TrEMBL record:
<dbReference type="InterPro" id="IPR013096">
    <property type="entry name" value="Cupin_2"/>
</dbReference>
<dbReference type="InterPro" id="IPR011051">
    <property type="entry name" value="RmlC_Cupin_sf"/>
</dbReference>
<protein>
    <submittedName>
        <fullName>Auxin-binding protein</fullName>
    </submittedName>
</protein>
<dbReference type="InterPro" id="IPR014710">
    <property type="entry name" value="RmlC-like_jellyroll"/>
</dbReference>
<dbReference type="Pfam" id="PF07883">
    <property type="entry name" value="Cupin_2"/>
</dbReference>
<feature type="domain" description="Cupin type-2">
    <location>
        <begin position="52"/>
        <end position="121"/>
    </location>
</feature>
<dbReference type="InterPro" id="IPR051610">
    <property type="entry name" value="GPI/OXD"/>
</dbReference>
<keyword id="KW-0479">Metal-binding</keyword>
Length: 167
């Protein structure tokens, strides 16, 4: 039987060097490893992950959030923040703050020669709509502590009447 201190530690503490990393690859631009940190913790409105991006690769597609804010802490390496149509250099020790809204579409690129290690934090607002300017897609989702209730990725081509399909 775990002690109260052990139970608290399991719900409140994660060690970046002890989490199991999952690899991902989507040729030709996306490759790295990541681990979600918040699942299983007591946090309800924070998401966090450790992300390691391989040289020459990107963490995720260029996107913007309508509800969530994000913060990235560069723990090791160097890279480029593609944001609002600009390319900004990143180095170890930099902290990036991305508010919600269409002003700050963003993407992190490892433009260095070594792996780029990030601590990524988000507010995990729900419902959320995320837009992808390069591809014209959007991702709409709604979730709570029990899981996802709605999740859709589409392009904004077809629009429907409010009454479409209703009795």
């Amino acid at each position: 039987m775990p002690t109260r201190a052990e139970e608290l530690a399991s719900r409140l503490i994660r060690n970046l060097d002890a989490v199991e990393m999952q690899s991902y690859r989507r040729e030709p631009l996306y490759a790295g490893r990541c681990a979600r940190l918040a699942p299983g913790t007591a946090a309800r409105k924070l998401g966090a992950s450790i992300d390691i991006i391989e040289p020459g690769q990107r963490a995720c597609p260029y996107h913007l959030h309508h509800a969530q804010e994000e913060m990235f802490v560069v723990l090791a390496g160097s890279g480029t923040l593609r944001v609002a149509g600009e390319l900004l250099p990143l180095k170890t020790g930099d902290v990036v703050f991305i508010p919600a809204g269409p002003e700050y579409p963003h993407q992190i690129i490892n433009s260095g020669e070594a792996p780029l290690k990030l601590l990524s934090v988000s507010t995990m607002e729900s419902p959320e709509i995320c837009e992808y300017p390069d591809s014209g897609k959007y991702h709409a989702s709604a979730r709570d502590e029990r899981g996802t209730h709605f999740d859709a990725i589409a392009r904004g081509g077809e629009t429907l009447d409010y009454w479409e399909g209703e009795p």
